[in-house]
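QA checklist item 7 of 12: single-chain prediction sanity check.
[x] sequence parsed
[x] length recorded as 218
[x] structure emitted
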Amino acid sequence: MNFMSKKSKSKYYVVWVGENPGVYDNWQDCQLQIKAFPNAKFKSFKSEQEAIAAFHDSSVNHISSPSKSESKAKTHFLEFIEEIDKDSISVDAACSGNPGLMEYRAVETISGFEIFKMGPFKGGTNNIGEFLALVHALALLKSQNDFKTSIYTDSRTALSWIRNKKVKTTLKANSTNKSVFALLNRAQKWVKENEIKNQIIKWDTKRWGEIPADFGRK
């Protein structure tokens, strides 16, 4: 077991199943334990104390059981891990119906640690959710003065809305989706008023599998 710590670390990584299970204070050492290791189990934590406590606990209490599609996606993208920006987060959205119940979230790309999850909101669309997720991530990183972390999205539509600083949706505002349009208008306003400094990268779904933030409902 390895317990490696330094002061002023913002993240600690627990490896329950890997080459050498333990708590690591940097992604590089953690990666050595899980790369190419079948069914590796790991997760990041914000404090060393929290990580050590989690390591001495069962992984099932900290990692939700993935669906078949999630397991397949994660295994697939780890095969291309050298191509993925390690200092990144991934965003995605899901919508039951079109329009329908919409939600979106962001996760750490490599560990899958959920950073935020919003919704569900009534009367949304997947494109709107993808856009809101991207803007939410950009605003969050700016509030942390973090312009080095990249953001992955699998939505070409959201990318174009960001690039053009304009939302082009055919969805009409009504009493059901008023909360969605309130978020959408605020997000569009933020994009117009703020310089986007973080790199936004299109996730290569065809080669890497589903984006890590995928809701696993396909």
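[x] summary fact logged: The chain has a mean pLDDT of 87.
[ ] second reviewer sign-off
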